[in-house]
Protein 1
Amino acid sequence: MQSEIRKRLIEAFTNAGQEYLSGQYLAETAGCSRTAIWKHIEELRKEGFLFEAVKKKGYKIVHAPENVTADEISFGLKTEFMGRSIHYEEKVDSTQKIAHRLATDGAVEGTVVVAEEQTLGRGRLDRRWHSPKYTGIWMSIILKPNLPMHKAPQLTLVTAVAVVQAIEDVTGLLPQIKWPNDILIDGKKVTGILTELQADADRINAIIIGIGINVNQKLEDFPEDILHTATSLSVETGQVISRAGLMQAVFARLEKLYLTYLKDGFYPIKLLWEGYALSIGKEIIARTVTGDIAGKALGITEDGVLKIQQEDGEIRHVYSADIII
Ligand code: BTN
């Protein structure tokens, strides 16, 4: 975990923008000695941060490295609570697993577990999520809303809208959402969201939102079985995208939408979600565990359940399925 001093130090540099900060100022802001500040700056240098140091003026950060450590994510972060507590790992089986443990141990709302690589990334419907080293965003966010359990799927849709908006902010691409929570670009999957619950007597104790975003993979990095159905932001834009920058954008969008949702309910989110949805108004097949349901996707209910109108006019509600368009 990132220390409090390190957090305050990075926040001071974030707020300073292009200004230099003196050692004295940094020591006062972070609540430690100037020697301690100097040691932290040395450690940040080792992580890959570049500082410009000017006599009588102080320090400024001129380059942040390209990993997703707590320091890199915090530098430039403009949220109140989302992503303010970061648990970083180089390699894990699944960030979901760690997030569940932290949530049980009392992690604060907005805590994020992030890893450079997952060896057993979990997908929906018990599938695996390919999570190679340094190329994607593999993270789990802990939220603790005071809500009944049946509202949990709404939070998945809140997250999907936030991720679409963040991708749009950072890359200019216009992704779409395939119900319930796949994010696609030109029909290929760029993001998956997996929501898991810790609940008690029908109330949510914690909700663990796992987000996997394919960011800087090249086409040849994808395994054969998903090569034709997956893509990355880098493949789509031809550029290398800052993962930490995109995470900050996701946290900013998610915090805003989540607070709107808690205050005004699901309706404003539903409208946004339907605006980004790929399948609404189209003929689709929902592949459920009990069989296929074919018909026209009408939209989602207040609970985020998909409504499909069959040929015979009957309207079916779909809670969990793979959608074929
Ligand atoms: C899907 O099947 O579309 C959902 C994929 C979710 C993957 C993310 S990556 C970070 C988090 N940790 C996991 O093990 N899974 C989720």
Protein 2
Amino acid sequence: MTEPYLPSSGRYEKLPYFRSGRSGLLLPRISLGLWQNFGETHPLANGQALLRRAFDLGITHFDLANNYGPPPGAAEITFGCVLREDFLPYRDEMIISSKAGYTMWPGPYGDWGSRKYMLASLDQSLKRTGLEYFDIYYSHRPDPNTPVEETMGALDHAVRAGKALYAGISNYSADQTRAAAAALRALGTPCIIHQASYNMFNRRVETGLLAALDDEAIGLIVFSPLAQGLLTSRYLTGTPEDSRVAQGGPFLKSEHLTPEKIGMARQLNELAQARGQSLAQLAITWIFRHKQVTSALIGASKVSQIEELCAGVAAPALSGDEIERIEAILQNKP
Ligand code: NDP
């Protein structure tokens, strides 16, 4: 690895921190996820540079899941390397999360939301990262065939066993969220955070989840706020060779770059420039208009991308007129 790491002494003067729901947990306005760009296909040195710069900029929250890679598990191993090399003295300054819910190992116990899977996977994630505990442990998706009380019981157990400090859920619908929150409340471990996708091209959370989160006092951490890069300057004039699309992964593909989406992104880019922002910064400002949103959980392949998004946090909120103009471009109000 590289030279010894000494974090920036001014790191807590750069980003604001917002409370997740009705909890004591403060999260940075921008959080960094390790879903992409931290697997075996990417140099460890780049992952290390991204994590170091993020922490220097006040990003205290790093999001993992058992299956992040490739191969599954690799992102947790990468994070563990950087933790040992750079971050151990600062562990108490960090919020590190992991999740289980998607396919992780073969057979009936390596997927979904059984107590068996959730707790075995947690132990594996702790081992891969070298952490003694996660700050947040999530059910990554609802399991239609396991009682929600069982899945939430596993999260409650993780907290009581000292292997997690807080319990969270991800990709649950509004009704599933209410049921999960009730199950956790009954056990005495509140659900304090929900991780859901939200961006200008995907507004599902506006159809009921935001209201449920408000009722339950659960904070929303938004994943893919940039629509994996579609809501940035990345694809406005073509497909750069080093982009997520060009790398040919299974998630963002060239067929997602439709003329309609690129046309909207170009119009949004003009609107962003008129208010002195980049498109990526505008996309983040746009999700912050909801009070339920605690943090924007971004991904990044380059240090400059993290810098740009952190710099954009100080931008003024959107005016009513700007919100209307964005609606006129998107034409997708739920
Ligand atoms: P984003 O929507 O933030 O997309 C990130 C990508 O956008 C980057 O990899 C980069 O693309 C591009 N980008 C970022 N910043 C800029 C910039 N300033 N200018 C230009 N392009 C930029 O989020 P992700 O889809 O990566 O998801 C973020 C995190 O959310 C994940 O790491 C994970 O922690 C979490 N997540 C959770 C899920 C769940 O089910 N709970 C599902 C998916 C994600 P490029 O690589 O091409 O440079």
